[in-house]
Design goal:
Strand content: 35-45%
Shape: elongated
Number of helices: 0
CATH class of the largest domain: Mainly Beta
InterPro entries: Dup_hybrid_motif (IPR011055)
Helix content: under 10%
Protein name: Peptidase M23 domain-containing protein
Organism: Dielma fastidiosa
Protein backbone atom coordinates (compact mmCIF):
# COMPACT_ATOMS: atom_id res chain seq x y z
CA UNK A 1 0.00 0.00 0.00
CA UNK A 2 0.95 3.64 -0.29
CA UNK A 3 1.07 6.21 2.54
CA UNK A 4 -2.41 7.69 3.24
CA UNK A 5 -4.06 5.03 1.06
CA UNK A 6 -7.63 4.12 1.92
CA UNK A 7 -9.65 1.34 0.34
CA UNK A 8 -13.17 0.14 1.12
CA UNK A 9 -15.61 -2.09 -0.73
CA UNK A 10 -19.07 -1.05 -1.93
CA UNK A 11 -20.50 -1.68 1.53
CA UNK A 12 -17.97 0.65 3.16
CA UNK A 13 -16.00 -2.24 4.70
CA UNK A 14 -12.26 -1.56 4.88
CA UNK A 15 -10.09 -3.79 2.71
CA UNK A 16 -6.96 -5.29 4.33
CA UNK A 17 -3.92 -3.97 2.46
CA UNK A 18 -0.30 -5.08 2.82
CA UNK A 19 1.07 -2.52 5.34
CA UNK A 20 4.31 -1.64 3.48
CA UNK A 21 5.11 -0.14 0.10
CA UNK A 22 7.12 -3.23 -0.90
CA UNK A 23 6.58 -6.95 -0.43
CA UNK A 24 10.16 -8.20 -0.14
CA UNK A 25 10.10 -11.33 2.03
CA UNK A 26 13.22 -12.62 3.75
CA UNK A 27 11.38 -15.44 5.54
CA UNK A 28 8.19 -17.20 4.50
CA UNK A 29 5.95 -19.32 6.69
CA UNK A 30 5.20 -22.99 7.17
CA UNK A 31 6.43 -25.44 4.57
CA UNK A 32 5.33 -23.17 1.77
CA UNK A 33 6.50 -24.43 -1.62
CA UNK A 34 9.51 -26.19 -0.15
CA UNK A 35 11.14 -23.11 1.37
CA UNK A 36 11.33 -24.63 4.86
CA UNK A 37 14.91 -23.49 5.40
CA UNK A 38 13.75 -19.88 5.09
CA UNK A 39 10.61 -20.26 7.10
CA UNK A 40 8.94 -19.50 10.39
CA UNK A 41 7.73 -23.06 10.21
CA UNK A 42 4.56 -23.85 12.12
CA UNK A 43 3.36 -20.24 11.99
CA UNK A 44 1.73 -17.89 9.50
CA UNK A 45 4.32 -15.16 10.14
CA UNK A 46 6.37 -13.32 7.50
CA UNK A 47 9.59 -11.32 7.68
CA UNK A 48 9.66 -8.36 5.30
CA UNK A 49 12.28 -5.77 4.34
CA UNK A 50 11.12 -2.60 2.56
CA UNK A 51 14.17 -0.95 1.00
CA UNK A 52 12.22 2.12 -0.10
CA UNK A 53 10.35 2.97 3.11
CA UNK A 54 10.92 1.73 6.67
CA UNK A 55 7.43 2.77 7.74
CA UNK A 56 4.42 0.51 8.17
CA UNK A 57 0.98 1.95 7.45
CA UNK A 58 -2.29 0.81 8.98
CA UNK A 59 -3.81 -1.72 6.55
CA UNK A 60 -7.21 -1.01 8.14
CA UNK A 61 -8.19 1.18 11.08
CA UNK A 62 -6.58 -0.44 14.14
CA UNK A 63 -6.51 -0.13 17.93
CA UNK A 64 -3.46 -1.02 20.06
CA UNK A 65 -4.42 -3.91 22.34
CA UNK A 66 -1.04 -4.92 23.78
CA UNK A 67 2.69 -4.10 23.77
CA UNK A 68 5.51 -6.17 25.17
CA UNK A 69 9.30 -5.92 25.57
CA UNK A 70 10.55 -9.47 25.13
CA UNK A 71 13.86 -11.17 24.44
CA UNK A 72 12.80 -11.88 20.88
CA UNK A 73 12.06 -8.18 20.32
CA UNK A 74 9.47 -5.47 20.87
CA UNK A 75 5.98 -6.78 20.13
CA UNK A 76 2.79 -4.77 19.48
CA UNK A 77 -0.64 -6.32 19.01
CA UNK A 78 -3.36 -4.48 17.08
CA UNK A 79 -7.02 -5.24 16.44
CA UNK A 80 -9.36 -3.74 13.84
CA UNK A 81 -12.11 -1.49 15.17
CA UNK A 82 -14.69 -3.28 13.06
CA UNK A 83 -14.93 -6.37 10.85
CA UNK A 84 -12.84 -5.93 7.69
CA UNK A 85 -12.48 -7.66 4.31
CA UNK A 86 -9.91 -10.48 4.08
CA UNK A 87 -8.36 -11.56 0.78
CA UNK A 88 -10.35 -14.82 0.90
CA UNK A 89 -13.57 -12.77 0.75
CA UNK A 90 -14.53 -13.22 4.41
CA UNK A 91 -15.40 -10.32 6.73
CA UNK A 92 -14.14 -10.53 10.31
CA UNK A 93 -12.01 -8.76 12.90
CA UNK A 94 -8.28 -8.61 12.15
CA UNK A 95 -5.50 -9.12 14.71
CA UNK A 96 -1.99 -8.01 13.74
CA UNK A 97 1.11 -9.04 15.70
CA UNK A 98 4.15 -6.90 14.77
CA UNK A 99 7.75 -7.33 15.99
CA UNK A 100 11.18 -5.65 16.00
CA UNK A 101 10.24 -1.95 16.00
CA UNK A 102 13.12 -0.32 17.92
CA UNK A 103 10.95 2.20 19.76
CA UNK A 104 7.37 1.53 20.90
CA UNK A 105 7.18 3.76 23.99
CA UNK A 106 5.07 6.31 22.07
CA UNK A 107 2.46 3.67 21.23
CA UNK A 108 -0.13 3.77 24.00
CA UNK A 109 -2.64 1.04 24.78
CA UNK A 110 -5.93 2.02 23.18
CA UNK A 111 -4.26 4.16 20.51
CA UNK A 112 -6.30 4.22 17.28
CA UNK A 113 -4.58 4.51 13.90
CA UNK A 114 -6.73 5.11 10.84
CA UNK A 115 -6.26 3.17 7.61
CA UNK A 116 -3.32 4.60 5.64
CA UNK A 117 -1.70 6.42 8.58
CA UNK A 118 1.74 5.62 10.00
CA UNK A 119 1.50 2.57 12.25
CA UNK A 120 5.01 1.39 13.16
CA UNK A 121 8.57 1.24 11.82
CA UNK A 122 10.92 -1.54 10.77
CA UNK A 123 13.59 -2.27 13.37
CA UNK A 124 16.26 -4.55 14.82
CA UNK A 125 15.07 -5.16 18.40
CA UNK A 126 15.50 -8.68 19.77
CA UNK A 127 16.54 -11.75 17.79
CA UNK A 128 16.91 -11.25 14.08
CA UNK A 129 19.23 -10.36 11.24
CA UNK A 130 19.09 -6.77 10.06
CA UNK A 131 16.32 -4.20 10.06
CA UNK A 132 12.98 -5.81 9.17
CA UNK A 133 9.38 -6.40 10.23
CA UNK A 134 8.03 -9.69 11.54
CA UNK A 135 4.26 -9.75 11.08
CA UNK A 136 1.50 -12.29 11.64
CA UNK A 137 -2.26 -11.89 11.14
CA UNK A 138 -5.14 -13.54 12.96
CA UNK A 139 -8.86 -13.76 12.30
CA UNK A 140 -11.40 -12.76 14.94
CA UNK A 141 -11.02 -11.14 18.36
CA UNK A 142 -8.58 -12.30 21.05
CA UNK A 143 -8.54 -11.89 24.80
CA UNK A 144 -5.39 -9.79 25.22
CA UNK A 145 -3.88 -8.95 28.61
CA UNK A 146 -0.49 -8.23 30.20
CA UNK A 147 1.11 -11.26 28.54
CA UNK A 148 1.84 -11.77 24.86
CA UNK A 149 -1.02 -13.68 23.19
CA UNK A 150 1.43 -15.92 21.32
CA UNK A 151 1.47 -19.66 21.93
CA UNK A 152 4.24 -22.12 21.07
CA UNK A 153 4.03 -23.60 17.60
CA UNK A 154 4.99 -27.10 16.51
CA UNK A 155 7.44 -25.77 13.95
CA UNK A 156 10.93 -24.33 14.01
CA UNK A 157 12.49 -21.00 13.17
CA UNK A 158 15.52 -21.93 11.10
CA UNK A 159 18.80 -20.20 11.91
CA UNK A 160 22.22 -21.68 11.18
CA UNK A 161 23.11 -22.28 14.83
CA UNK A 162 20.00 -21.28 16.76
CA UNK A 163 16.81 -23.16 15.85
CA UNK A 164 13.89 -22.76 18.23
CA UNK A 165 10.11 -23.07 18.43
CA UNK A 166 8.60 -19.76 17.30
CA UNK A 167 5.49 -18.26 18.87
CA UNK A 168 2.29 -17.98 16.86
CA UNK A 169 -1.12 -16.39 17.22
CA UNK A 170 -3.75 -18.95 18.26
CA UNK A 171 -6.05 -17.61 15.52
CA UNK A 172 -3.32 -17.17 12.86
CA UNK A 173 -4.30 -17.09 9.18
CA UNK A 174 -2.29 -17.88 6.05
CA UNK A 175 -1.16 -14.42 4.84
CA UNK A 176 -2.39 -15.15 1.30
CA UNK A 177 -5.92 -15.21 2.74
CA UNK A 178 -5.42 -11.88 4.52
CA UNK A 179 -3.74 -9.16 2.45
CA UNK A 180 -4.56 -7.45 -0.83
CA UNK A 181 -1.52 -6.04 -2.65
CA UNK A 182 -3.02 -2.95 -4.31
CA UNK A 183 -0.26 -0.40 -5.04
CA UNK A 184 2.41 -2.60 -3.41
CA UNK A 185 5.68 -3.16 -5.27
CA UNK A 186 6.20 -6.92 -5.45
CA UNK A 187 9.87 -7.82 -4.98
CA UNK A 188 10.10 -11.33 -3.50
CA UNK A 189 7.32 -13.68 -2.36
CA UNK A 190 9.15 -17.05 -2.41
CA UNK A 191 6.52 -18.11 -4.94
CA UNK A 192 3.54 -17.18 -2.73
CA UNK A 193 0.60 -15.82 -4.73
CA UNK A 194 -1.29 -12.72 -3.50
CA UNK A 195 -4.33 -10.88 -4.88
CA UNK A 196 -5.30 -7.33 -5.70
CA UNK A 197 -8.76 -6.11 -4.67
CA UNK A 198 -11.22 -5.72 -7.51
CA UNK A 199 -14.95 -5.15 -7.51
CA UNK A 200 -17.01 -4.13 -10.51
CA UNK A 201 -18.38 -0.61 -10.34
CA UNK A 202 -17.32 2.52 -8.49
CA UNK A 203 -14.70 2.38 -5.77
CA UNK A 204 -13.36 5.27 -3.65
CA UNK A 205 -9.58 5.47 -3.31
CA UNK A 206 -7.75 8.21 -1.37
CA UNK A 207 -10.57 10.70 -1.87
CA UNK A 208 -10.90 10.00 -5.60
CA UNK A 209 -13.02 7.60 -7.62
CA UNK A 210 -12.07 4.57 -9.71
CA UNK A 211 -14.17 2.15 -11.74
CA UNK A 212 -13.73 -1.61 -12.14
CA UNK A 213 -15.22 -3.42 -15.12
CA UNK A 214 -15.11 -7.22 -15.33
CA UNK A 215 -12.61 -7.22 -12.49
CA UNK A 216 -10.21 -4.79 -14.19
CA UNK A 217 -9.49 -1.19 -13.32
CA UNK A 218 -10.54 1.18 -16.12
CA UNK A 219 -7.49 3.23 -17.19
CA UNK A 220 -7.12 5.84 -19.92
CA UNK A 221 -10.61 5.05 -21.16
CA UNK A 222 -14.28 5.98 -20.85
CA UNK A 223 -17.25 4.04 -19.49
CA UNK A 224 -21.01 4.47 -19.70
CA UNK A 225 -22.60 4.38 -16.25
CA UNK A 226 -26.17 3.14 -16.60
CA UNK A 227 -27.20 4.21 -13.11
CA UNK A 228 -26.13 7.84 -13.65
CA UNK A 229 -26.88 7.82 -17.38
CA UNK A 230 -23.58 9.51 -18.17
CA UNK A 231 -20.12 8.97 -19.64
CA UNK A 232 -17.06 9.20 -17.38
CA UNK A 233 -13.34 9.24 -18.25
CA UNK A 234 -10.32 7.93 -16.33
CA UNK A 235 -6.63 8.83 -16.48
CA UNK A 236 -3.67 6.46 -16.97
CA UNK A 237 -3.69 5.60 -13.23
CA UNK A 238 -7.42 4.87 -13.18
CA UNK A 239 -8.64 8.01 -11.40
CA UNK A 240 -11.83 9.70 -12.63
CA UNK A 241 -11.23 12.99 -14.45
CA UNK A 242 -12.97 16.21 -13.48
CA UNK A 243 -13.03 19.64 -15.14
CA UNK A 244 -10.68 18.57 -17.91
CA UNK A 245 -10.38 17.44 -21.50
CA UNK A 246 -9.97 13.79 -22.45
CA UNK A 247 -9.02 12.43 -25.86
CA UNK A 248 -11.28 9.54 -26.79
CA UNK A 249 -11.17 7.88 -30.21
CA UNK A 250 -9.58 10.98 -31.80
CA UNK A 251 -12.15 13.30 -30.23
CA UNK A 252 -11.74 15.52 -27.21
CA UNK A 253 -14.54 15.52 -24.69
CA UNK A 254 -15.05 17.81 -21.72
CA UNK A 255 -15.54 16.33 -18.26
CA UNK A 256 -17.52 18.53 -15.90
CA UNK A 257 -16.71 19.08 -12.21
CA UNK A 258 -19.03 16.17 -11.40
CA UNK A 259 -17.01 13.97 -13.76
CA UNK A 260 -19.85 13.58 -16.25
CA UNK A 261 -19.08 14.17 -19.91
CA UNK A 262 -20.64 17.36 -21.22
CA UNK A 263 -23.18 16.28 -23.84
CA UNK A 264 -23.19 19.33 -26.09
CA UNK A 265 -21.90 18.84 -29.61
CA UNK A 266 -21.08 22.55 -29.97
CA UNK A 267 -18.52 22.24 -27.20
CA UNK A 268 -17.04 18.97 -28.45
CA UNK A 269 -13.45 19.50 -29.55
CA UNK A 270 -12.15 17.43 -32.43
CA UNK A 271 -8.61 16.80 -33.67
CA UNK A 272 -8.07 17.11 -37.40
CA UNK A 273 -5.30 15.35 -39.30
CA UNK A 274 -2.78 18.11 -38.60
CA UNK A 275 -3.36 17.81 -34.88
CA UNK A 276 -4.96 21.23 -34.38
CA UNK A 277 -8.14 21.58 -32.35
CA UNK A 278 -11.30 23.25 -33.54
CA UNK A 279 -14.82 23.62 -32.16
Amino acid sequence: MKPTQKLVNKDGVEVILWPQTQLNLTQGCGNDLGYTWLSHEGTCALDNVDNSDKQLYAPVTLKCMGKYHLGNGNEVVWQSLAPVLFADGSVDYLILDIWHDDEISHIKLGKIVKQGSHLQTMGCSGIGTGCHTHIEAGRGMLEIDASSPLIYSNGWTHFANNNFHPGTLPNAVDPRLVYFMNDTQIMNTFGMSFKNFYTDGWLPNSGKWMYYQKGKLVKNDMIWDTENQAWYAFDKDGFMLRSSLFKYQNEYVWLQESGKMLVNSELMLKANNSGYLHI
